[in-house]
Amino acid sequence: MIRKAALLALLTTALLVPPSMAGTAVAAPRGLGKIAAPANPLLVGRITPEVPREPTIPIQVTGTVTGTPMAPVRVRIHYSPGQPFRTRADMAQFATGQGIVTTSYSTKVQFTTLDQSGKLAFTFNVTPHELGMTQMGVYPFGIEVLDGNTGAQIAMDRTFLTYVPKDQQPPKIKLAVALPLVDRPHRADDSTFMDDDLHTSVTSGRLSKLLELVQSTGKTVTWFLDPAVLDDVRQSSAGPYTVVKGDENTRKAPDAAAAQWFEAVRTALADKPVMATPYGDPDVTALVHNGLDAPAAAAIQRGAAAATAQLGREVPTSVAWPSGGAADRDAIDELATAGVKSVLLSGDTLPPDPPVSTTPDAASRLDTVSGPLAALVSDPTLSQLLGGDVSAPGSALLARQRFIAETAMIAFEPPGSQSQGTPLTGGQTTGGGQGTGGGQTSGGARTARTIVVAPPAELWNPDPKFVSALLKNVSAAPWLKMTTLDSVKPTKAQVHRSDLVYTTRDRQAELGKSYLATVRKLSDKADAAATVTEEHTQLFHDAILRLTSSSWRGDSKRATAFAAQVEKAVDTRIDDVLVVGTARAVAGANGQVPVSVSNSLDKPIRIKIRVTSDNTSRLGIDAPGGVYETPETTILKSRTLLENVPVTVPQGGGEATIAIQLLTAEGKRYGDAVHVTVRATGYTGIALVIVGAALTIMLAAVVMRILRRRSRKSFPFSPAEPAGPESVPPPGGPQAVPADQRESPPT
């Protein structure tokens, strides 16, 4: 009896287990592996047409229920006869299951069982008339699966149906879509790749998907292109390239797939609206907050120039898209100062103030230190739907239905409403017989509002088929007209918005202070390396800008590795101009110390040399303030310069060091100071005493000899000098002697 009771309880439990629990992975104990998420037992595969236009047209719904084999289920629909949504807020509540929406329901699949594989495919048709759609609007629509025995809910998908009868002309809105063609950097310095991920990305990864999307979108979608992406791709395809992984350097052959991708992007963007991001898509807000305004401005200029060269047509940077669509006043002022005319922001960054129940026009004005700037505010809900993950089965359909319904609801909203909206009835017209919506001028003429949509993540990994189908379907909607982003301008009738909202969370997401301090140091070193030559170069300019990429947010480990490689390349370049650090010696109270500077570059350089003493008590620099600095000096390629530095040796001397710092012509430090040992002595004073004494002795000897010679000439009986060279008769015989010298002595 006990065994029978236990078996009966087990069977009863199995029957009562909802199908949603069947077929799912068993939860693994902690530490034993990843727990699989339960599969959705309800999959809605298709709803057609997406926008019914006639009351009797069949709306076909197909889907699949999955669960325990042979388990009984029922499928029913929920709808709201004659009650369209009043506001977008009501739609949001319904989508999350939190809103209270009065609905009716109808069982479309009666009590039936799943097949032996645990599946049930269903198809049913329903008309707008049966659903009580009597007027133009957006209506709730739910599909629910119930346990056939207990009536308990197993699953429910909530979606939306937009009904626009052909005899009712809906109001119009404009929709501008901005999409990013950006990537994280793959190169550190210009010749070194830190990974080989580009090949996979352009063949089957994210960049491949973006190319497919570029090729399938129309001429109204505006693309934001980071030219650093094309530079990386072109570098890997132009010739052999080096990939650094740890301590290993691998030489790779040119990537033909990258070359094909590059040309395909150029072709696809040839006739489409394109805006260039600042080079490397930098974290502009973080740069400004850390005093790196110059790189931010340089990235904007470089972005326009590089994109123009790559695409073969002018590509402006007049519209900026800050990371995450968030920025504060400091960043906006910097962008305006750098020449930006418009900025694309998230709706959460610039919300209406006071809050409104209807959707305002996307364009607004911002005052900056350089004059007014146009703020293009993207719609948060639509942007999230466009940029969201639709990889789960059925999620693409629900996202598309919601996107279409949201745009329709914006068009159907009463114009200028600041409080709870009222539904739009089919008979309402304004002026020319069209339904209300959009904006309205003082004369009663309707002006269409513009809505902007932009995916919230720059490193967006889209589903090209979903995005292409969504944009194609929505562009055919009778209430919507697609437009380009550069056509969106602030109007006179615009809603008042709050000041920029930049939260603590936004600040915490920025590139870190310590990391940007490293970037600042590298920027100074790279600038010195680029400007020391007579003809200035941009050798590490792009590499420094890539280090400021907003893609490094949350990826500090990889960013630090890139910065280390850039520093290594900069130091190698700087070391080609070096101070010869051989020890020197100087004797005496003053003298000169030779300083040698070698130029191993293949170009002449212009530098200054600054010398100071590290031990002034033992060695001083004989120059004003103890600092010896040469004027700007040219050193030819592969040559060495020798400069003599005057020094003084106080208190008898000793061993000391001097600091030799090379400077660019602009006075910036070039490399680190080199410290050279100088052995200084006080021997010069002793040497002078010795030399003086020797000279005195020599002088005394000379004087004594002269005196002896004079004394000999004055005494007549001095003995004859020994025969010597002077006594030899001159050639030709004896010479005549003057009479006064031939006189004999008196007797």
Task: Please give the structural blueprint.
Layout: H1 2-16, E1 42-48, E2 59-66, E3 72-79, H2 88-95, E4 104-113, E5 119-126, E6 137-147, E7 153-163, E8 173-181, E9 192-193, H3 198-203, H4 206-216, E10 222-225, H5 227-238, E11 241-245, E12 248-252, H6 256-268, E13 274-276, H7 284-289, H8 293-311, E14 319-320, H9 329-337, E15 342-346, E16 363-368, E17 371-378, H10 380-387, H11 395-412, E18 439-440, E19 446-447, E20 450-453, H12 464-475, E21 480-483, H13 504-508, H14 513-531, H15 541-547, H16 556-574, E22 577-579, E23 584-587, E24 590-599, E25 605-613, E26 620-621, E27 628-629, E28 633-635, E29 639-648, E30 653-664, E31 669-681, H17 683-714
Parallel strand pairs: 8-10, 8-20, 8-21, 9-11, 10-13, 14-15, 15-17, 23-31
Antiparallel strand pairs: 1-2, 2-5, 3-4, 3-6, 6-7, 11-12, 16-17, 18-19, 22-24, 24-29, 25-27, 25-28, 25-30, 26-29, 30-31
Helix pairs in contact: 4-6, 4-12, 5-6, 5-8, 10-11, 11-12, 14-16
Quick recap of the structure?
InterPro entries: DUF6049. 29% of the residues lie in helices and 26% in strands.
Which descriptors would you attach to this protein?
Immunoglobulin-like, disordered N terminus, 26% strand, alpha/beta, elongated, 31 strands, 17 helices, 3 domains, 7-stranded beta/alpha barrel, five-stranded parallel beta sheet, 747 residues, six-stranded mixed beta sheet, disordered C terminus
Helix percentage = 25-40%
Average pLDDT works out at 85
Count of separate structural domains:
3
Count the beta strands: 31
Any idea of the CATH class of the largest domain? Alpha Beta
Name the overall outline. Answer: elongated
CATH second-level architecture of the largest domain: Alpha-Beta Barrel
- Rg of Cα set: 44 Å
Distance between the termini: 182 Å
What is the CATH topology descriptor of the largest domain?
A: 7-stranded beta/alpha barrel
